Amino acid sequence: MTQPTTNDYLRTALSLAQAGVPVLPLRKGKVPFGNCPDCTGLACGGRPSMKTAGDCGCPRVCHGWAAATTNTAIITSPAWAPMWRTAAAVAYHPAGAGLTVVDLDDTDAVAWARTALPPTRTVATTRGEHWIYRGTMRSVNAVRPGMDIKSTMAYARWLGPGTGTTAALPDVVRALAAKESRPARPAQSAVRLAAPAGGGECRHRTPVYLERGIAMAEQRITEARSQIHTTVYRTFLAVLSVHGRCGCLTDTHVARLFTAAQAKGETLRHCTDAWTNARTALGM
Hints:
Elements: H1 6-18, E1 23-27, E2 31-32, H2 72-75, H3 81-86, E3 89-92, E4 99-104, H4 107-116, E5 121-124, E6 129-134, E7 140-144, E8 147-150, E9 156-157, E10 167-168, H5 171-179, H6 188-191, H7 207-223, H8 228-243, H9 251-263, H10 268-281
Parallel strand pairs: 6-10
Antiparallel strand pairs: 1-2, 1-3, 3-9, 4-6, 4-8, 5-6, 7-8
Helix pairs in contact: 7-8, 7-9, 8-10
């Protein structure tokens, strides 16, 4: 089978963008290219995510899903050219196209979906299938064994148009995400005192700004493929540097970060140490 070339990926990206699907290049390992220098390690506090996807203001691809764009001038710009030259895939932001992707990662997950979910457009993947529905929702990993939901604040690889007719997003998929809305592993008592005290309401922008910052921090930890310890510490540091002194962080926010870290194999002890060390480094 002939491997796609740089021009193939770029042509695919432009075709999708013209159809209203926000796209971005992926490097080897199915991950976005590294953050731009101004945003490495979430040094910007995730502020670009408050803007429209693809309009974060950075000169390069950054922040994963938030870099996805339908702007062909950006896609073909000199800033993106080096990434297309080494791209290994094209990704898209499902919610930006009004879609939700149910990512079924193995044959068991596919078999379950065929009995439990309404038929819809399907795309074959390396090990399973993507089931694509019309409608958006929050993204959640591991809602069932071998099953992730990708919609808002997430990206999915483009693997072709698939087959079948796109159905409306069913309640059964939304219900699966609702079941995973609570922190699964760290006990609340273990982090109840971890959120720093402060003056109350977030003074930076709005509660939505805080929510998106926490969601992006979760995503950064979840997408780490190496140096997990370092990624967790730096992410905690970034969150605390922006929100640690105003008192808007709650135990629930901290538990969400701990849950993401523990899902990557970190122990509760390491999470607690990383959080404490980040606070110490910031003089809290």
